[in-house]
Amino acid sequence: MTENFDWTAFQDEVDYASYSLDDDKLRVFSGRVTSELYDEFKSNGWNRAYKQGCFFAKWTPRREDIALALCEEIVDEDSTAEDRAKERSERFAGYSEHATERAQDARDRSDAISRNIPFGQPILVGHHSEKRHRRDIDRMWKLTGKSVEEGRKAEYWQRRADAAIRHAEARYEPGKIARRVKKLGAEKRKKQRERNTNKSHMREYVIKDHYPDLAYYDRPRYGELDNTERSKVDADIAARVARHEQWSDRWIEHLDSQIAYWQAIYNEVKPDDLPEAGEQFPLKKGCWVKSSYYRGAWGKVQRVNKSRDKRISSVTIDENNVIGVKFFVRRWDYTELTAWSETRPEVE
């Protein structure tokens, strides 16, 4: 990361910048950029999304300043997480379709070669057809291998396409949103503690880091400075404390907006018909539950998660004991559970 890098000198290389509350990411849209600008983006934690034509990164005050230096304005992102997941799913489905076509083409070519060889015909050693016969067998073997490889690619991209949609839908499960709000609240309290705690120790940090010749055995000898040096240190400390407070305030303001956004979404999707504690399934660790979300899949309960009113909100599933589904989210909401069993169910 280059210190004092002049981002404003590269404004002509970018189009616009956007921010999405949904995934908390900044995006700077551009075409091809110079290697110097690309390297600076990468060193500051930005990644390149070639299909979207942008650089993207999680929000931080520094990255917001970079986007503002390049574009002077940050607009709201038009596309949502669902839109991007749908585009990604369609793209992966296209890859799967193309791989399937290539697998079928290789299979057809192999079959066409085999039709030229009589069934059960051995290689006639020493005959003029020996060389061609061996070449055809080798080509058939390679084409068959290619067909199998492309078939595996088709399955892989189809799984990616399905997972893209499932991941986007899982983001808005009530339990996940509630945990996200709780985590954001913890991050906000941490930033508030850092703002207050670090301020009291900022003087010592500044002297130790920026005036090492004034420190003795990690104890600042601030009292030995003359008035001129002390005024210089005090001015530097005041400036750094002010920047620290401004930085922390931006973080806290940003986390407040994130909490308000996800709390509003939770109020829309939270289950209002959750049964009372006495009316719920008597779930415990080791029992099995059936999920409607995964089309009747069964999973063994590893942990029962309860809300503040003692009602079961979700269960955590043992990833090694699931019947009927290969790819799944380990936390299942109570609202999607349709049955339970104390022992492993007999499922065909």
Q: How would you characterize this protein structure?
A:
The protein is α+β, with helices and mostly antiparallel strands and 348 residues long. It folds into four domains: 7-78, no CATH class; 83-170; 199-269; 277-341. Helices cover 50% and strands 18% of the residues. It contains six helices and twelve strands. It has helices at 35-43, 61-71, 81-114, 130-170, 174-210, 227-269; strands spanning 14-20, 25-30, 47-49, 54-58, 74-76, 215-216, 219-220, 288-291, 297-306, 312-323, 331-333, 337-341. The strands form three sheets. Strands 3-4-2-1-5 form a five-stranded mixed beta sheet, covered by helices on one side. A five-stranded antiparallel beta sheet has the order 11-10-9-8-12, with no helix packed on it. A hairpin with a 7-residue loop joins strand 10 (312-323) and strand 11 (331-333). Helix 3 packs antiparallel against helix 4 (130-170) and helix 5 runs antiparallel to helix 6 (227-269). The protein is flat, with a radius of gyration of 31 Å.
